[in-house]
Design brief:
The protein contains 6 helices and 7 strands, in the order βαβββααβαβααβ. By secondary structure, it is an alpha/beta fold. The mean pLDDT is 94. It comes from Vidua chalybeata.
Length: 195
């Protein structure tokens, strides 16, 4: 591995399932990783599809856990939400919005096209360019359920490991993504923005 590990951000909508699963796996593999959501609120499944549990991004995972435990322990244990929140609170205290982060990353991975568009258009391209340092933004479409989040996290981890081992990320990344598309049967959106 090159001396400086890649600085990686993983972004989904609510910073709960997909980005946190990838955050968990990447941090265990030694990556410098942070995770974020781009939504205005954090949404978790509720008792019915039209009744989600909505929280502010300032709410801690622990507070969400206790709230759902109080509302319906059986439902939220059965659907895996309490288990997910338990994992999340061991990684960091609360969800974070990407729009509020001013850190610099080498690689930003998004988990759905809408989030990719928000990261690229609404945030990175609207910032004042200061250092002209490149950041690669790659979208890996991952369905928002526990199983797909796990599979997607391993794919993201494998991708990060391959990028980490390239001699020249700027010149090798397109070819690498093409190989990954063929191997995984998925298509990846990719663009370069500048800080």
């Amino acid at each position: 591995m090159p001396s400086a590990p890649l600085r990686v951000a993983v972004v989904c909508s609510s910073n709960q399932n997909r980005s946190m699963e990838a955050h968990n796996i990447l941090s265990k593999r030694g990556f410098s990783v942070r995770s974020f959501g781009t939504g205005t609120h954090v949404k978790l499944p509720g008792p019915a599809p039209d009744k989600p549990n909505v929280y502010d991004f300032k709410t801690t995972y622990d507070q969400m856990y206790n709230d759902l435990l109080r509302k319906d322990k059986e439902l939220y244990t059965q659907n895996g939400i309490l288990h997910m929140l338990d994992r999340n609170k061991r990684i960091k205290p609360r969800p974070e919005r990407f729009q509020n982060c001013k850190d610099v990353f080498d690689l930003i991975l998004t988990c759905e096209e809408r989030v990719y568009d928000q990261v690229v258009e609404a945030d990175l391209n609207s910032r004042e360019q200061e250092t002209c340092q490149p950041v690669h933004v790659i979208n890996v479409d991952i369905q928002d359920n526990h199983e797909e989040a796990t599979l997607g996290a391993f794919l993201i981890c494998e991708l990060c490991q391959c990028i980490q081992h390239t001699e020249d990320m700027e010149n090798e990344i397109d070819e690498l993504l093409q190989e990954f598309e063929e191997k995984s049967g998925r298509t990846f959106l990719h663009t370069v923005c500048f800080y």
